[in-house]
Amino acid sequence: MATDFKSIPVIDISPLLANCDDPNMGEDPGVRKVVTQLDQACREAGFFYVKGHGIPESLIKEVKNISHQFFDHPYEEKLKIKMTPQAGYRGYQRIGENITKGIPDMHEAIDCYKEIKQGMYGALGKPMEGCNQWPLNPPNFKELMEEYINLCTDLSRKIMRGIALALGGSPYEFEGERAGDAFWVYRIIGYPGVANSHGMPENDIGCGAHTDYGLLTLVNQDDDITALQVRNRSGEWISAPPLPGSFVCNIGDMLKIFSNGLYESTLHRVINNSPKYRICIAHFYETNYDTAVEPLEVCKQRTGGTVKFDRAVYGEHLVSKVTTNFVM
Predict the structure, then answer these.
(1) How confident is the model at residue 196 (pLDDT cuts 50, 70, 90)?
(2) 29-44 and 141-166 are packed helices; what angle lies between their axes, rounded to 10 degrees?
(3) Alpha-carbon distance 215 to 227, whole Å?
(4) Rounded to an integer, what distance in angstroms lies between the CA atom of residue 229 and that of residue 206?
(5) What pLDDT, on the 0 to 100 scale, is given for residue 1?
(6) Where are the alpha helices (DSSP H) in 45-140?
(7) E strand or H helix at 40
(8) What pLDDT, on a 0 to 100 scale, did the predictor assign at position 201?
(9) How many CB atoms lie within 10 A of CB 286?
(10) Alpha-carbon Rg of the chain, whole angstroms?
């Protein structure tokens, strides 16, 4: 359960990464320190920054720069990769097409998912079957983004080993049948500045209050605009300003279930009050698509033996959100 936190903690995860392939990583003093910090952050805020993550700063900047180039194009160009249900909900969304709790969001985006081949998950996977739609202009967009996605997926897997230790389990709790073939969602999001909102009301919500669906989210946001806000237990909105070279991380609904409520997926929103156009690249690390998520045994023991959440199938949860999350 989130507390009345006033700021988002910063964690240097380099000791975790240096030891994450050691089955006895939990015995390392540096890893233990990181695990303690992860546990505190997940219990108190559900959000934290990571530094020392190993993804090159040059690549982090490059994916934002090329995203700005795409969103600078006329709508006619961007609509060449328009999102449709027939495309597995992959592609470009115009401003106001994404819906949060019935209200249009003031952002545009490219939505991508780990690709699902026809029949891979039967009826469960059918709505999400398809290939990602990547723009041909700017050049090398697809190649750059796929390189970045691979690095973010690997980084997320390593952070989840630390979180598994924080919950009292083995480092591998979130591998195998739970997330050994982790699904991912990837959103390239553009938030117009208040002076460039295409006739929409100024200071409108860029993205309404919501929680994320899966295990862990990595957010790469423009360095010079503070727009992300996180709600604490008292209902105050706490800013998560960009820290150059770091990712903002938050936990999602599936981890809340796995932890039996020890960790909570925290409400957050985006309001871009800057006159500048803002880019955010969000990588969502999920369970296996067809995983049936239920509290870990170690977490049930830590919470008195009572199961607090019903079993949830990740793919069903995702489809229920995606199919109600945008308008044509």
Answers:
(1) low
(2) 90
(3) 23
(4) 11
(5) 56
(6) 57-71, 75-78
(7) helix 29-44
(8) 47
(9) 27
(10) 19
Q: How many Cβ atoms are within 10 Å of 310's Cβ, its own excluded? A: 8
Cα distances (Å, whole numbers) of residue 33 to 13, 40, 89, 125: 9, 11, 41, 40
Please give the structure tokens belonging to residue 47: 């959000």
Q: Is pLDDT of 326 > 90?
A: no
* Structure-token pair, residue 64: 């934002």
pLDDT attached to residue 202: 45
Rama region for 250: left / alpha / beta (φ>0; ψ in -120 to 50; rest): beta
For 287-298, the pLDDT digits (tens) are 999 999 999 999
Task: Give dist(CA 155, CA 318) in Å, integer.
Answer: 22
Please identify which residue in the block is written with the tokens 């800013």.
239
CB 219 within 8 A of CB 281: yes
Give the C-alpha distances (Å, rounded to integers) separating 102 from 86, 116, 122. Answer: 23, 28, 30
Phi and psi torsions of 69, nearest 5°: -60, -40
User: Counting beta carbons within 10 angstroms of the beta carbon of residue 21, is it exposed (0 to 12), middle (13 to 18) or buried (19 or more)?
Assistant: exposed
